[in-house]
Amino acid sequence: MVKKVHVLDHPLIQHKLTIIRDKNTGPKEFRELVDEISTLMAYELTRNLALQVVTIETPIKKMNAKKLSGKKIGIVPIMRAGLGMVNGITRMIPVAKVGHIGLYRDPETLKAIEYYVKLPTDIQGRELIVVDPMLATGGSASAAIQALKDRGAVNIKFLCLIAVQEGIDAIHKDHPEVDIFTASIDQGLNDKSYIIPGFGDAGDRLFGTK
Ligand code: URA
């Protein structure tokens, strides 16, 4: 299967990404910009949603017009940094349901362990968008996607702000059918698995915990 990575290079997304990369951007502006970038990315990501023709009446006359054909969408943030992207996406897709996945890395096996999973009950019939600002090693992204598949999900996309090739390869090794949407593919990872140049710890910068 062809590897599917989509770099969303809209000028507004790229401009805002540059501001959040800057170490002098504080948590308030950082959070607002992650929110705005997520809205813009959701707009691009939903470009191919199916439409149907419905008949409506304007104040002037009857017409046939297009509406979304009822596709059900679910957004699944990986906690905690993924939470920062949710409102930006639901602004664009207000009927989307939101599930949550919490994972931690077992210090001995280095495997991602689920500590919290709460999902819409009908995930089998939904197009799911897993969100996390950073796709670094790909360990938690791949485990989150697996957690959804184990519960019956079949239609999954992954959305992040910054990815590196290692993380892209990890997802595509385990889940070759999953499309990845990112605003940038950065250089690589440092010895602490932070993205270079990246923007540091996404959770800390969103929630001001550093
Ligand atoms: N997670 C982050 O928050 N930042 C990185 O650079 C990599 C993973």
Automatic annotation (TrEMBL):
Gene: upp
Record GO terms (molecular function): uracil phosphoribosyltransferase activity
Free-text comment on the cofactor: Binds 1 Mg(2+) ion per subunit. The magnesium is bound as Mg-PRPP.
Name this polypeptide is given: Uracil phosphoribosyltransferase
Residue sites binding uracil per the record: I195, G200, D201, A202
Binding site for 5-phospho-alpha-D-ribose 1-diphosphate: R80, R105, D132, P133, M134, L135, A136, T137, G138, G139, S140, D201
Principal EC category: transferase
PANTHER family: ADENINE PHOSPHORIBOSYLTRANSFERASE, URACIL PHOSPHORIBOSYLTRANSFERASE, CHLOROPLASTIC
